[in-house]
Amino acid sequence: MMNKKTKKRIGLILLNIFFLTICFLALIPILYAFTLSVSGEGGAISSSMLPTSFTLKNYAAVLNEKPFLVWFKNSMVLSVGTMIVAMSFAVVAAYAFSRFQFRGKRAVLLLLLLLNAFPQILSMFAIFRLFKTLNLLNSQGGLILIYAGSMCIFSIWNMKGYFDTIPIEIEEASKIDGASNGQLLTKIILPLARPAIIVTSVMVLIFVWNEYLFATTFLLNDNSYTLAGGLYQLQANDYTRSWPMFTAAAIMVSIPILIIFFAIQKYMVSGLTAGGVKG
Known about the structure:
The chain is mainly α. It has helices at residues 4-37, 57-65, 68-99, 105-117, 124-134, 140-163, 168-176, 181-192, 194-210, 213-218, 227-234, 243-263, 265-270. The two termini are 46 Å apart.
């Protein structure tokens, strides 16, 4: 009979095989898209899983024949701008909700959570009328305000949970040493909360990078499209649709997010768990 150590080892091997199988199945659509992007002209359904020929002309066509770099710049402006605006307010608000007691605090938090629960499309018509009145249609600034307002709620809740895990004794000791509230926040709290700030910022950036509905509704011409809107334009016309070109563009859109994800991977676990000094 097998001893406990052997059974445990076999169980771990089977578990690893199971997870590797799940990962492989999840990668099949991505591998298929990459195969299609490096193949020649052809349809998405008729193409095989393995490329019959290898070519980068689809990637070159996206860069040379389509305003891909313009779409990329627009996405960068919206994503980074939203991240800066949303996190600037969210960090301060989350710290206030975490550390200060004031009347209506719980009610405000629940109200923010309730507002975030409604689908965005419900506010589409009202926002469109407001933008038209304020002459903000086809404006990146107006869209940043909308994105920042919606993502600020998520960021506040996410950051508040992390600030709650930082021992208040650290702040009390800093105040005894003569630190002001500003110094306490910038030199003590923010460095301790760096993992959560980085992870939350990237989640905001990814949301805006992939957002499609508002971007295609309020940005009205080809030169103002984001990458999400640009991808739709690549396959919107049945007569000019090219699936190899579309998959090449989709992979190019995904590469910056993958780079960012791998760059912050070490913060992912610590950014979602308790930080600071443990008592």
